[in-house]
Amino acid sequence: MSQSFLVLGSAAIFSTLIILSLLCAQEVDGRLIQARKKTVAVYNDIDPNIALNIHCWSSEDDLGVHTLYYQQNFRWRFRVNFWRSTKFVCDSSWSDHAGNGNHTVKFTAYKARRDWMKHCVDNCVWSIRLDGGYYGDGLDTGFPLKNMFSYN
Questions:
Q1: Nearest CA to 67 among 148, 5, 128?
Q2: Per-residue pLDDT tens digits for 11-69
Q3: Among 39, 55, 90, 148, whose Cα sits 20 to 30 Å from the Cα of 78?
């Protein structure tokens, strides 16, 4: 009797895993594909003489503080959770050598409800510039970079 219970239990677990994998799958061009990893990259495109400080985190992961020099980037990969509530927030700051002070902005680098299959299917790119943060998929065809916030 314990052997049949083990078989039934294993079958139930296997069936549950298949159902969950189908629920986490997505349809693209009529094909069902598994949820892929997302990549978020933040680039310092401010100025050759300005370093960008960035600190990004989610409810589950603290990605630490990073200093990016001109044209350097910080990137991370992750999978969107089952409930599509995955969200990464970043604090960004830099100092202007022209005497205009410190510039800081907190922004949502990735939000599944905003970005899932709409804006950045695989790659989410942030270009931090003098006039603000530009966001897109890094391609000119899908979701071209657009200004999402400005530094005041």
A1: 128
A2: 555 555 444 444 445 544 444 444 678 999 999 999 999 999 999 999 999 999 999 99
A3: 148
What is residue 57's predicted lDDT score, i.e. its pLDDT? 98
CA atoms within 13 A on the CB side of 128: 31
Main-chain dihedrals φ then ψ at residue 83, nearest 5 degrees = -85, 0
Count CB atoms within 10 A of the CB of residue 72: 14
Query: Which pTM does this prediction carry?
Result: 0.75
Query: What's at 145, amino acid-wise?
Result: L
Give the Cα separation of 60 and 79 in Å (integer): 12
3-class SS string, the chain: CHHHHHHHHHHHHHHHHHHHHHHCCEEECCEEECCCCEEEEEEECCCCCCCEEEEEECCCCEEEEEEECCCCEEEEEECCCCCCCCEEEEEEEEEECCCCEEEEEEEEEEEHHHHCCCCCCCEEEEEEECCEEEEECCCCCCCCCEEEECCC
Amino acid at site 119: H
- Residue whose entry in the numeric block shows the structure tokens 């159902």: 19
